Amino acid sequence: MARTAAPSTLPRAHVPDAVIRAVTDASRIRRRAIDRVAYASDASHFLLTPQAVLIAADAAEVGAVMRAASASGSRLTFRSGGTSLSGQASTDGLLVDVRQRFRRIDVLDDGRRVRVQPGATVRQVNARLARHGHRLGPDPASELACTIGGVVNNNSSGMACGITENTYRTLDSLVFVLPSGTVVDSAAPDADTALRAAEPALVDGLLRLRERVVSNPRSVEIIRRQFAMKNTMGYGVNAFLDFETPAQLLAHLVVGSEGTLAFVAEATYRTVPLRPQIATALTVFPDLDAATRALPDLVATGAVTLELMDATSLRVGQSLAGAPRQIQGLSVRDQAALLIEYQADDGEELADLVARGGRALAAQPLEAAAAFSSDAAERAAAWKLRKGLYASVAGARPSGTTALLEDVVVPVERLAAACESLQTLFDRYDYRDSVIFGHAKDGNIHFLLTDRFESSEQLSRYTAFTEDMVDLVLEAGGNLKAEHGTGRVMAPYVRRQYGDELYEVMRELKRLCDPAGILNPGVIIDDDPDAHLRNIKLADPIEPEADRCVECGYCEPVCPSKDLTLTPRQRIVTRRAIARAEASGDDALVRELERDYDYAGVDTCAVDGMCQTACPVLINTGSLVKRLRRENAGRVASTAWSGAARSWGAATRAASAGLTLADRLPGGLVTAATDVARAVLGADAVPRYTDDLPPGGSPRSRLGSSIGAPDAAPVAVFLPACVNTMFGPAGDGIGVTEAFRRLAERAGVRLVVPDRVDALCCSTPWTSKGYAGGRAMIAERVVTELAATSRDGELTIVTDASSCTEGFVHLLADAGVAGVVEDAVSFTERVLLPRLGPVTPRVGTLALHPTCSSAQLGLDPALLRVAEAVAAEVVVPDAWGCCGFAGDRGMLHPELTASATAAEAAEVRALDADAHASCNRTCELGLTRATGADYRHVLELLEEVTRPTAG
């Protein structure tokens, strides 16, 4: 038995000439080492490095590429979300990115159907459908990041959908492209005729295979039995029993085919109505056996979900921020939990379901009485635990080990015995701290193994465990893959599950659709018995900020640089590639990767922290980038920024004056001057001036010692943001600082202003750029000044830019200083609005842009309530995301903001709102640049609609 480790140095990049000619824009063919290693990793435990990466433009181009690949014998793999866990999204051939330019979503029939391209995530689709009271049937736990391409190709299911609401059962139609380039639209009235005309041999072969299957009683029996449960092992040969016409038959065979038969260009789903009445309970049992033996009775109550979590899952869950109260403080020994949920159309139906569940649970030996809740926050905490469980548990593994996740299903009545046998295997093969969790309602469990999977002893142990596990599942009448797809990990066992006859049917299906064998070879069909032992990913230790990353990809949809350079996952896997190259002595590769990483990994990272909001193990890749910037900070720049910190008041006045002067000069002249300076000193050193930037703002010291009602006792400290000094308001607006002053005055509230306010800053410019010395100076000054002004933390500190609010929160926390920092929006919603009296909205439609900081601060609900006081209709674009302006990053690298805002800007322009607002000045600048509409702080609009009327 041999296992070949993933190579430590890269083979030569190669793209056949025919494939190059098939791509209309050569810049979308990526051959650099950094692009190849960035795409090498997906969420699985396999690592294969592609020969090149192609960013596909559209389905027609994919068809042309497949024709060229077939002619040249080149291997192709399609990658969209990269959240698949069985190795089906990795390749050492050509990797085709079908996410970036395939994100269209069309809601049809008032939400009863939806047409989606493969690059849209499940969450994005469901957000659009929710307005119509519908959702997709498939509900994978990775819905934040997994895309429709993977959901179709894996026939993904999830917590509630079982086998009745997966893609196979809710598919309305499919548009797919065969390796020959033939496009099939199964919804077309002439779909069968067109398919036969274009692919006569394929149609004849499919119909022969169908007859072969349906006329074989043993094959029919196996299919009926195995597909009565969740099943993504092998091809979906149940389609031979369910469909007779060629187009529908082939479309449903493509479902779950893991990119080995065709490219899925578009899927139209029949959606599922949302059931508005929901109750959830997290119930803790004394052990795993008790939890699994309770399942048949609970299934009979009509529970929509029964999610199982074992003791290790609970221990890891306890360490996470916002852990459900049911496990907080629990002394975990052998306990297990079931997350139970009922859904109904009305309250009476829900009460009946909950009562049934309560009676079933009353007979169980629970650690505490079951308590069902419909509270949104409590339910969210329970589901956050469950949905992030795999990545959270894997993230807690020892450094340098690999997490390997398996996914099996057995009949529900046999689940307790199967779990007991699995635990016996864990003990036998010394897999300590292994984890069992999953969708117990369906008999579908996942279990996690961690090891290095490198030495002969480790691989022999894994091989023996796998053999025993396969026997265990098949003897229980189960399937070796329930919902994660066969991939590479279970391809050698497909024949064992189905037998020779159905395996040969699957092999013939592959030959008919892909005669040249170019699509994802080694996935689903592989006769090599050791295929699952090859190319196992070794987790090379890297910087502590990111070492626990399991490469799940949850961070990618929220990253502003995802379509420009690298995503957070890709930044991390590239660091691991550098570590591998260093360990192997490949100095040339290290130099190449580090050279290209400076721009792709460091310069174009917005360090906005949005990745942390999506990461189950709370990695902030921005913290990694800040470390790298600190380590690489030049002496001259560090000295200059330390000087700025010493004289920050003068520095901000100079920046303001410079912008005001530039505003008075011909814009092209100033832009040209900054372009020359950028060429000499570097794009990351000199911001680029453009004539959409405003003149400078006013100094903060003009406010005096306090704002608001002069005779009232102070209720807070007002520390206006220096960014509003440097960048003045839009157009003839008054700016947020003046708006907040007027609102406080109208509300009869007084806030004190620090004496040295012009010299204070939240320190974000220094932390984001990595200048530790200057940051320390600013932090010391802020702490000293605020201690005096806030009476040692007695008064809340209020600031008027959300990124600065976040910066002050971190500054005080890092200094170990107690104090409450509140954004001006939240303070206005909490304190000022109630004192302003009735407010009549005067704006028709308001396009609202929350910021990355407002999201992380939990400010968005208050932001929305203030906006609703201003406008009759408030619209947060579906494509909302971090704008990437990131202080001055949008001026240093304008391409970052252009890329980050492209989708949102298109949506805003189509909306044609009456007004546009946000809560941070630089974000307003970024959105103004992207959309051409003036974005202002929402408090400026509130000030306008609350102005006293004459008379």
State the end-to-end CA separation.
91 Å
Unreliable runs: 1-6
Please bin the fraction of helical residues. 40-55%
Shape summary: globular
Strand order within the widest beta sheet:
12-14-13-16-17-15
- Please give the largest β-sheet: 6 strands, antiparallel
Beta-strand proportion: 5-15%
What does this structure look like?
- Helices cover 44% and strands 13% of the residues.
- It has 951 residues and is α/β, with parallel strands linked by helices.
- The strands form six sheets. The chain has a six-stranded antiparallel sheet. A five-stranded antiparallel sheet has the order 5-6-10-8-9. A five-stranded mixed sheet has the order 18-20-19-21-22.
- α39 links the parallel β25 (915-918) and β26 (935-937).
- The protein is globular, with a radius of gyration of 29 Å.
- Residues 1-6 have low confidence and may be disordered.
List keywords for this structure.
alpha/beta, six-stranded antiparallel beta sheet, five-stranded antiparallel beta sheet
What is the compact description of this entry?
This protein has about 950 residues and is of the alpha/beta class. About 45% of the residues lie in helices and about 15% in strands.
Question: What is this structure's SSE topology?
Answer:
Layout: H1 17-22, E1 29-30, H2 33-40, E2 52-55, H3 59-72, E3 76-79, E4 94-97, E5 105-108, E6 113-116, H4 122-130, E7 134-135, H5 148-153, H6 167-170, E8 171-177, E9 183-185, H7 191-198, H8 200-214, H9 217-226, H10 239-242, H11 246-254, E10 263-270, E11 272-273, E12 277-285, H12 288-293, H13 295-299, E13 305-309, H14 311-318, E14 336-344, H15 347-362, H16 376-387, H17 389-395, E15 402-409, H18 415-428, E16 435-439, E17 444-451, H19 456-475, H20 494-498, H21 500-513, H22 568-584, H23 587-603, H24 610-614, H25 621-632, H26 635-646, H27 648-664, H28 667-681, E18 706-708, E19 714-718, H29 723-726, H30 736-747, E20 750-752, H31 764-769, H32 772-789, E21 796-799, H33 802-814, E22 821-823, H34 824-836, E23 843-848, H35 852-857, H36 860-870, E24 871-875, H37 889-892, H38 894-911, E25 915-918, H39 921-931, E26 935-937, H40 938-945
Helix pairs in contact: 2-22, 7-8, 8-21, 18-19, 22-23, 26-32, 30-34, 30-40, 34-36, 36-40, 38-39
